[in-house]
């Protein structure tokens, strides 16, 4: 058994067997049937599932490597993006160099679509897609694990409770990320913190940065980070399909002090995140961080500056900020009408009001919080930059 077999993505030699297993998995076929034929799946699922399985076997016949599989899947990704967004734009992709592996460290709003949009940008730039870090809490079903590991995902063990086990898992993860970039020449995507930023506050967890260094403790921290070609990535959604669920969770946490997920809640978040309306989406790749940083605190501040500054603010963010009780009076944030054309603003006002109306009154402050926080964060970055000139 190889050192990284427990967490690594599947390699090319494993693709045919894993595909065959996946296309014979009743739970996977049931999910596809419900997604493709939501109305008929209940009464006619017994008839539809064999037909879907046969169709998929025909479509994926002859697929023997990961790159060919991604070429096949790209059509479905394109269709999902067309159906669930008003367009996707990118900045900074042109700086990525062929043959150079990167460590993409991104803010995290959606379980599946965050890395999918980064993949999409890199793929259409003609470069190899990154390997994707995914928490084991999302891999409760065997078919989900198979599906993700076929698409270059590697496993982050988050469900461990013992200190020694956690330390060993972090050590292995660190070694794998460094091995991937330095020896395999393969890029990595990983979120800046564990879990989604449900309150819209994108902050880098220093524990993630410390983890990158764990397997190379005999080298200076700053030198290790420089060798990984770290690129901060800002992922901006005009609208979050899961914003109502996040508002509910934030409200329950604030009023009861805790929150327990219902069975299947992560599955529902994944499905809604993929298919739900997102409006416009923008992905910004900052330049690689080449400055030497002595410690995780310095580095986290530099990454946050890039991610928060690179976040694209849409009209809804300004509308939410204007009604936010906790807005920063010291910041000179213009009104939405001063930034956006009247027609664009009117459309946003209607959609924002629809979302407010759908949210229980007591939970609305937490809906506002999600959209207002990126405005505060970005204008704080701008103010700090002006003070440092």
Question: What does this protein structure show overall?
Answer:
It is a single chain. The chain has 15 helices and seven strands. By secondary structure, the protein is of the alpha/beta class. It has two domains: 256 residues, Glycerol-3-phosphate (1)-acyltransferase; 77 residues, no CATH class. It has a seven-stranded mixed sheet, with helices on both faces. Helix 1 runs antiparallel to helix 6 and helix 10 packs across helix 15. It is globular and about 60 Å long. The N and C termini lie far apart (55 Å).
List keywords for this structure.
389 residues; seven-stranded mixed β-sheet; alpha/beta; Glycerol-3-phosphate (1)-acyltransferase
CATH topology of the largest domain: Glycerol-3-phosphate (1)-acyltransferase
Number-wise, the strands total 7
Residue-averaged pLDDT: 92
> What does the largest sheet look like?
7 strands, mixed
Low-confidence stretches: none
Question: What count of structural domains?
Answer: 2
- Tally the helices: what do you get? 15
Which overall shape is indicated by the principal axes computed on the Cα atoms?
globular
Q: Estimate the strand proportion.
A: 5-15%
Strand adjacency order, main sheet: 1-7-6-2-5-3-4
How much helix, percentage-wise, in residues?
Answer: 40-55%
Q: Rounded to an integer, what's the Rg over CA atoms?
A: 22 Å
CATH class of the largest domain: Alpha Beta
Write the H/E string, N to C: HHHHEEHEHEHEHHEHHEHHHH
Coarse structural class: alpha/beta
Distance, first to last CA:
55 Å
Q: What is the annotated CATH architecture of the largest domain? A: 3-Layer(aba) Sandwich
């Amino acid at each position: 058994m190889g050192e990284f077999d427990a967490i690594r993505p599947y390699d090319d030699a494993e693709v045919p067997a894993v595909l065959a297993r996946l296309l014979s998995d009743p739970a996977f076929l049931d999910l596809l049937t419900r997604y493709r034929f939501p109305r008929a799946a209940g009464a006619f699922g017994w008839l539809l599932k064999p037909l879907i399985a046969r169709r998929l076997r025909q479509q994926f016949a002859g697929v023997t490597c990961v790159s060919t599989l991604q070429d096949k899947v790209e059509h479905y990704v394109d269709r999902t993006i067309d159906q669930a967004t008003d367009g996707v734009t990118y900045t900074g992709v042109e700086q990525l160099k062929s043959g150079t592996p990167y460590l993409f460290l991104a803010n995290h709003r959606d379980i599946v679509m965050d890395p999918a949009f980064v993949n999409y940008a890199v793929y259409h730039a003609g470069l190899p897609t990154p390997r994707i870090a995914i928490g084991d809490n999302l891999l409760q079903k065997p078919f989900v694990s198979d599906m993700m590991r076929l698409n270059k995902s590697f496993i982050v063990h988050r469900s461990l409770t013992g200190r020694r086990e956690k330390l060993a898992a972090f050590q292995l993860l660190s070694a794998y990320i460094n091995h991937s970039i330095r020896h395999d020449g393969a890029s990595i995507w990983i979120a800046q913190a564990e879990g989604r930023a449900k309150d819209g506050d994108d902050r880098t967890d220093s524990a993630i940065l410390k983890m990158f260094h764990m397997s190379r403790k005999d080298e200076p921290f700053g030198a290790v980070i420089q060798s990984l070609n770290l690129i901060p990535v800002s992922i901006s959604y005009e609208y979050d399909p899961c914003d109502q669920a996040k508002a509910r969770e934030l409200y329950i946490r604030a009023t009861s002090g805790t929150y327990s997920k219902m069975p299947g809640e992560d599955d529902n978040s994944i499905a809604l995140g993929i298919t739900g309306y997102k409006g416009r989406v923008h992905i910004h790749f900052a330049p690689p961080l080449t400055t030497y940083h002595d410690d995780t605190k310095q580095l986290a501040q530099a990454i946050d500056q890039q991610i928060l500054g690179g976040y694209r603010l849409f009209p809804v963010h300004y509308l939410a900020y204007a009604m936010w009780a906790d807005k920063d009076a010291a910041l000179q944030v213009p009104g939405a009408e001063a930034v956006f054309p009247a027609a664009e603003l009117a459309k946003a006002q209607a959609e924002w009001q629809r979302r407010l109306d759908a949210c229980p009154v007591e939970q609305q402050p937490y809906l506002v919080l999600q959209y207002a926080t990126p405005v505060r964060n970005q204008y704080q970055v701008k103010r700090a930059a002006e003070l440092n000139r």
